[in-house]
Amino acid sequence: MSIHRKRALIIGGGVAGPVLALFLKSSDFDTQIFEASSGPSDTGGALGLAPNGMNVLAAAGVVEQVRDVSVTGNEWAFENQRGKLLACAPAGDTARYGQPPVMITRAALHRAIIEHAEAQDIPVHYNKRLVSIDDIPGHPIVAHFADGTVAEGDFIVGADGIRSQVRQAVMPDAPKPSYTGMMAPGGFSPCIDTGVTPRSNQRVHFIFGQNGFFGYFNTVTPEGPRTLWWSTASAPLESKDKMAATTKAELQQRLLALHGDWADPVPQLIQSATDILNIPIHDVPSLPRWSAGRTILIGDAAHAVAPHSGQGASMALEDTMYLGKLLCESDGEHLEKVFVDFEQHRRPRTDKVIALGRRNGQRKEKMSPVEFWIQQQMIRLFVPLTRAKKQDWLLAYKVEWDRAVPAMSARTRSMVAR
């Protein structure tokens, strides 16, 4: 047993950082979270959490809070740009996988998790942009922040995303994120369906066209139901920097140039959008290692997963539970072995998911008429074959750990929400 509570410094207060903190808190680690932004984000798009990610949230005691502010993505509908339904598939079998997949705004997911962490007395420090790390043997590891403050601990976890400052601090020669040449503009529009409430079942639409891709689903926001949509083009209409500077009206014009002749409701969603984000898709080349000394990277900081896989958040959540398990079982000792074991277990799986995302992205590139016809036939043929066991490798993954974080009661959730 260690002679003092191990001190964990978690850099990044998005999704993975607070969930890891919850796991460590359950084993009496002294855990602090440091976040560069000024507070919980109220902006951003939306995402899907697959059953494997939801199972982690259940173990962390926060799954009910997340379900309270999301909808269930119960079915995937694959269509072409003319509005023809090519195939349907269940998004995830709750009886088979333990938890349903959900569709949720990033702001709602972040707030549910961070509020639960704070309710568990986990300190969250904002406006803390990391600038450097001192890791001197025989001394505490030290994180230096841009405001001149420092924090000491026994180890550091970098959960600060694709542009990780932790990675830059401890691996300055590591490959940098690279722009893939694909943009992912998306937005929120007035909801096109009725009956969209938290936990309601909603279909997720994937529309494949000859010159790009469009997807949409209904979800809930503090302002009420909204339809979230996104577009993927094989190449931006302008450079990445110029696209980032375009106005909402200009983005709508560009998107209508791509999708204006597609079947309803695609043009209507673009025209009625209340907010549009324009996100360049980046990739992180495989890192030679995920740890250095007493610092380890998790989530996008270690292995950014393209959005085409639908698994980015779920992979980061899996990381938190597996690393939490190793750290708790070792009582924070033997960090080098813990970090090696973590990477050896997680890298093959994340590599496989990254490859899946890249293959899915290739299916959204501009095609010739013949290639487009072939793609549609493949969707018709192979989507039905992906049911049940064909998805088990991805969705049935669970970290075998009998220690779970106590869930928050409905009464306590209501008090926190107020």
From TrEMBL:
<dbReference type="GO" id="GO:0071949">
    <property type="term" value="F:FAD binding"/>
</dbReference>
<keyword id="KW-0560">Oxidoreductase</keyword>
<dbReference type="InterPro" id="IPR036188">
    <property type="entry name" value="FAD/NAD-bd_sf"/>
</dbReference>
<protein>
    <submittedName>
        <fullName>2-polyprenyl-6-methoxyphenol hydroxylase-like FAD-dependent oxidoreductase</fullName>
    </submittedName>
</protein>
<keyword id="KW-0503">Monooxygenase</keyword>
<feature type="domain" description="FAD-binding">
    <location>
        <begin position="8"/>
        <end position="354"/>
    </location>
</feature>
<dbReference type="InterPro" id="IPR050493">
    <property type="entry name" value="FAD-dep_Monooxygenase_BioMet"/>
</dbReference>
<dbReference type="GO" id="GO:0004497">
    <property type="term" value="F:monooxygenase activity"/>
</dbReference>
<dbReference type="InterPro" id="IPR002938">
    <property type="entry name" value="FAD-bd"/>
</dbReference>
<dbReference type="Pfam" id="PF01494">
    <property type="entry name" value="FAD_binding_3"/>
</dbReference>
